[in-house]
From TrEMBL:
This protein's UniProt keywords: Repeat
GO molecular function, one term: RNA binding
Official protein name in the record: Pentatricopeptide repeat-containing protein
PPR repeat windows: 62-96
InterPro entries assigned: PPR_At4g14850-like_plant, PPR_rpt, TPR-like_helical_dom_sf
Length: 204
């Protein structure tokens, strides 16, 4: 019943708060799926203050709930809060996963603090996530946003299995940062390789 109510209340912040109160008073707060749905809905409507309050009241939230909050901060343009949340997570010895760092990298790009980017990259290496496309691609984009072309290019070249998403992201970032010659160079490399390009590559 509550799941159905959540679906129909997706754009009504006050109703979402009432549902949260109902979840707490009915003892349903032990159901992580309900809390996750509720957290998602609060993020969609942009009520990050209440989403954070609800998160802080949870007992040892699992990593996917941390990632959900990271996602919310990034999508609602709260990079500082996202970076501070990451610091809190590390202080509590909560182990991140491969979905954590793309959001952290995006937050650092929004915040514009390169040293934080270097630190998060070191953590990625520590946890063994650097070879994962979803993580490496976002780190490449982060370095491009900071104008660190050599670091971005080195990391991109180090990726073992570059899919079309990674190629498109790198080429588009080169164009956006006015490195058209490099974008063209990698476009030719893509065409000469085994990965088939699409309309997004051409538009980039």
């Amino acid at each position: 019943m509550l799941s159905k109510l959540l679906r129909t209340s997706s754009s009504k912040p006050e109703q979402l708060k009432k549902i949260h109160a109902l979840v707490l008073t009915s003892g349903l707060s032990v159901k992580k799926s309900l809390l996750t749905q509720l957290l998602d809905k609060l993020i969609v409507v942009g009520n990050m203050c209440y989403a954070r309050q609800m998160f802080d009241e949870m007992h040892k939230p699992r990593i996917f709930l941390w990632n959900t909050l990271f996602k919310g901060y990034v999508e609602n343009q709260f990079p500082f809060e996202s970076v501070m949340l990451y610091k809190k997570m590390r202080s509590l010895d909560v182990r991140p996963d491969e979905f954590t760092y793309p959001f952290v990298a995006k937050a650092i790009s929004q915040l514009g603090v390169l040293p934080c980017g270097f630190t998060s990259h070191a953590h990625v290496v520590k946890y063994g996530f650097e070879s994962l496309g979803i993580v490496a691609t976002e780190l490449v984009m982060m370095y491009m946003n900071f104008g660190e072309l050599s670091s971005a290019e080195f990391l991109f070249e180090s990726m073992q299995d570059k899919d079309l998403v990674a190629w498109n992201a790198f080429i588009a970032a080169c164009v956006q940062t006015r490195n058209s010659a490099i974008a063209l160079e990698y476009y030719h490399k893509l065409c000469a390789g085994d990965v088939r390009f699409d309309s997004f590559t051409v538009l980039g």
